[in-house]
Amino acid sequence: MNLPPAHSPKLPWAATAEVADALRAGHPVVALESTVLTHGMPREPRAMSAQFIAAHPLWNAALPANLAAAQAAEARVRAAGAIPATIALVDGRICVGLRREELERLCGDATATKVSLRDFGSAIARGRTGGTTVAATAAIAAQAGISLFATGGIGGVHRGWIQSFDLSADLLAIATHPVLVVSAGVKVILDLPATMEALESLGVPVIGYRTKFLPRFTAAPDPAIPLPDSVDEPAEAARVLAAHWSLRPNCGALLMQACPTEFAIESQYLEGALAAALAAADLQGVRGAATTPFLLGRLAAAQGGAAVLEANLALLCANASLAGSVAAALAASALDRWRLDSAQ
Ligand code: PSU
Ligand code: MN
Question: What domains are there in the chain, each with its CATH number?
Answer without folding.
Answer: 13-336 (3.40.1790.10)
